[in-house]
Amino acid sequence: MDNHEKIVFLDIDGVMQAYNSDGRFKNLKTIPELQKELTSKYGVDYTKYDKYDVGAVYYDWHPKAVSFIRKILQETGAMVVISSDWRDEGLDRMIDFFRLHDMGEYVVDLTPRIGYEERKLLKDKYQDGVSYRTMEILEYVEKHPHIQRYVAIDDMDLSKGLEGHFVKTSNLIKEAECKKAIGILNGTEIASDSSELSHDTDDDAEDWDE
Questions:
Q1: What is the edge-to-edge ordering of all strands in the sheet holding 149-154?
Q2: d(CA 111, CA 147)
Q3: By C-alpha distance, which of 107, 115, 110, 167 is closest to 137?
Q4: pLDDT tens digits for 91-125?
Q5: What is the spatial distance between Cα 24 and Cα 197, in angstroms, rounded to a whole number?
Q6: Residue 151, H or E segment
Q7: What angle do CA 146, 150, 153 make, to 5 degrees?
Q8: Rg of the chain over all Cα atoms, to the nearest angstrom
Q9: Is the dihedral of CA 93, 118, 181, 208 positive or negative?
Q10: How many Cα atoms occupy the beta-carbon half-sphere of 168 within 13 Å?
Q11: d(CA 95, CA 34)
Q12: Where are the domains of the chain?
């Protein structure tokens, strides 16, 4: 990873992919052909990836939510470190997935996976109630001292331990949360857990499509 000074620690489910999204299931029979088409278009072998995952990225990453993430990156110059469980199969896979939404060049790294035994060793380092994902983000920041500004965008409550560096979503990222993240990264706004911004329901994805 290069010495990027601004980082977005990004979750996927509940941020760009709505809880109730089912496009991949509705199009399941056609996904193998889609994988071949994407392979031809991008010069990347998408047939090696799980068809459900490719289908989710193509059909279920919500266009408006994706546009908000893209706006954050474009207006701040930040790069993406994946903190979602999607990271488990490697960086190249995530770059290829983000490429389908013209954001592959922004994905630069993954947070570490901290297992249960390691968490026990770290418990004295962090205050009670700090989630495992917050630990993973803070450990990453500590090991990359060049990072000057960062924000975690997640539907999980990471407010404890990430005060001033966290934007909470509810099902999908909305415009107010997008602006909050931009403010944190550009140093123009101080955020707490931003939970007051996330009162929307699971119907938002449907509302946006109307």
A1: 107-110, 79-82, 6-10, 149-154, 166-168
A2: 14
A3: 110
A4: 999 999 999 999 999 999 999 998 777 777 777 77
A5: 29
A6: strand 149-154
A7: 150
A8: 17
A9: positive
A10: 19
A11: 18
A12: 6-21+62-208
Structure tokens, 34: 């889609």
pLDDT in tens, 7-39: 999 999 999 999 999 999 999 999 999 999 999
Is the pLDDT at 127 greater than 80, yes or no? no
Q: How many CB atoms lie within 10 A of CB 37?
A: 11
Structure tokens at 93: 């896979």
- In CATH terms, 6-21+62-208 corresponds, of 2.40.160, 3.40.50, 1.20.120, 3.30.1660, to 3.40.50
What sign results for the dihedral spanned by CA atoms 170, 171, 173, 176? negative
Q: Which two tokens stand for residue 46?
A: 């998408």
- Which amino acid appears at position 95 of this protein? I
**What pTM was computed for the model?**
0.89
- Token representation of residue 114: 């901290």
Strand intervals (E) in 45-91? 79-82
- Name every residue whose Cβ is closer than 8 Å to that of residue 53 and which is 6 or more positions away in sequence: 97
* 3-state per-residue secondary structure call for 106-147: HEEEECCCCCHHHHHHHCCCCCCCCCHHHHHHHHHHHHCCCC
User: What is the C-alpha separation between 102 and 6, in angstroms, rounded?
Assistant: 19
Amino acid at site 131:
S
Other residues' Cβ atoms within 10 Å of the Cβ of residue 193: 17
